[in-house]
Amino acid sequence: MARKDTTEEKLARVAAAEHAGDDAALARWLADAGPVAARAAEAIGRRGREDAIPALVSAFPRFLRHPEMDKGCRAKEAIISALDALRNGDPAPYRAGLCHVQLEPVWGGRVDTAVFLRAACVTALARLHPAEVRFDIQPLLYDPAPAPRQAAVRAFAYLGGEESELLLRGKILAGDDEPDLLREAFAALLTIAPERSLPFVERDLWGDDAARREQAALALGASRAPAAYPRLRARWDANTDFALRQPLLLALALTRTGEAFDFLLAQLAEGGTLALLACDALVPYAADPRARERIEAAVTRCHNPKLADRYAEHVPPAP
């Protein structure tokens, strides 16, 4: 009986085919098991030949039907990434991957290895941009795994429009246990419809939920909207929660206004823990030589060794 090639030998042949520019051989390797097919799909994506799209589209359903051939979803992820890179215009593979769940055994139970596949399909569908993709992507806002949910938020930020705005509002109102995801959703609203979204985001800035307050503040600051600084400053003046001080200072710094810079310098001069938090918030300003000079002068005037060490830790000495 003839000896079967090892996976390592097959991978070497895939690499040789890519080096030789043998697109037909690369397409044939898509019929192999997960690791080899994944490497072939990656090579096809790098080659950039749009005429390879049919082979990728044809290979994808087989791995959906036979997940045992693609443990970890490596081949499926690679195929979707290659199709996206080649600007495949057929949404069918992406739609099929959106709902794929692949539970595989791990120590103590099972884990879904299709999480990043679903996220990749969301991103690819959004880039394809047909009007109806919002209906496909909307359920992923409530996926059990964070990665597809985050991909869906980013997709709606990319797609824009009132439909995306409404879906993102619904997601924010429903809540999420990933704070970063909420911040991205707030930021997306402030980009899609700044004036209409400002009161909606500001409501959470004054709300009872600490995580939502923090993410609303950071999104508001990052928006650099003209109305951001006064609203954040009003929240600072009314704040009695020490835990909210750091995110508020960071949010004020993100506005990048002269008013915010002067305010942060004044907080630095107060000394104590508040000065350390203000120092952290001022670090991004130090890239500007004039701002850096003012920050360093304020640090020196404080005669606070801890503050000086904190500043030196984040900002290397000027050349």
Question: What's the CATH topology label of the largest domain?
Answer: Leucine-rich Repeat Variant
Broad shape:
elongated
Structural class category: mainly alpha
Q: How big is the Rg?
A: 25 Å
Strand line-up in the sheet with most strands: 1-2
- The CATH class of the largest domain, by name, is Mainly Alpha
- First-residue to last-residue Cα separation: 69 Å
Short overview:
By secondary structure, the chain is mostly helical. It has helices at residues 7-20, 23-29, 34-47, 53-65, 74-85, 92-98, 115-128, 133-137, 146-159, 161-174, 179-192, 194-205, 210-223, 228-238, 245-254, 258-269, 272-282, 289-302, 305-314; strands spanning 103-106, 109-112. A hairpin with a 2-residue loop joins strand 1 and strand 2 (109-112).
Q: What attributes does this structure have?
A:
two-stranded antiparallel ribbon; single chain; 319 residues; Leucine-rich Repeat Variant; mainly alpha
Outline the secondary-structure elements.
Layout: H1 7-20, H2 23-29, H3 34-47, H4 53-65, H5 74-85, H6 92-98, E1 103-106, E2 109-112, H7 115-128, H8 133-137, H9 146-159, H10 161-174, H11 179-192, H12 194-205, H13 210-223, H14 228-238, H15 245-254, H16 258-269, H17 272-282, H18 289-302, H19 305-314
Antiparallel strand pairs: 1-2
Helix pairs in contact: 1-3, 2-3, 3-5, 4-5, 5-7, 6-7, 7-9, 9-10, 9-11, 10-11, 11-12, 11-13, 12-13, 13-15, 14-15, 15-17, 16-17, 17-19
